[in-house]
Design goal:
The protein is an alpha+beta fold and 137 residues long. 15% of the residues lie in helices and 33% in strands.
């Protein structure tokens, strides 16, 4: 998930456990979530290696107890990569990233996150992917 309003790069505990990487628990953060609750992270995975097709990059990733994403790429990621997005009416995006080590720019096309859901494709009610309008925001 690409989220410029998030102040961290994060992954849920379940994903971290599957990766079997060390976490440094002396780097715990207390955060406020969207529901105005506060929660602490488990720690940080230092120098997580990712490759988006233009060479390896290293991220400092906070591990959160529970989340509905596999990896949250917040503001630190977007600043590091000078990320820009172009949004389309169908929910797709074109993400442009610039590798901080080489300066090379590359583009990653995405599709709407509901595109893989058969109920959403048929415009049927879906409890997994309620739109903001359905929720009442």
């Amino acid at each position: 998930v690409l989220d410029s309003s998030s102040k961290i790069v994060a992954m849920p505990k379940q994903v971290w456990e599957g990766l079997r990487l060390p976490v440094f628990s002396d780097h715990v953060m207390t955060m406020s979530n969207a529901n105005t609750n506060t929660d602490s992270t488990i720690g940080v995975v230092e120098n997580l290696t990712l490759n988006f097709g233009a060479g390896e990059v290293y991220l400092q990733v906070q591990v959160v107890p529970c989340a509905n994403f596999n990896l949250l790429l917040g503001c630190p990621f977007q600043c590091l990569f000078s990320a820009t997005t172009k949004d389309f009416p169908n929910g797709a995006q074109l993400i442009t990233l610039r590798n901080p080590n080489t300066g090379k720019a590359y583009k990653i096309p995405t599709c709407a996150w509901t595109e893989g859901c058969p109920r959403c494709q048929c415009h049927l009610p879906c409890t997994n992917h309620q739109s903001i309008v359905e929720v009442g925001f």
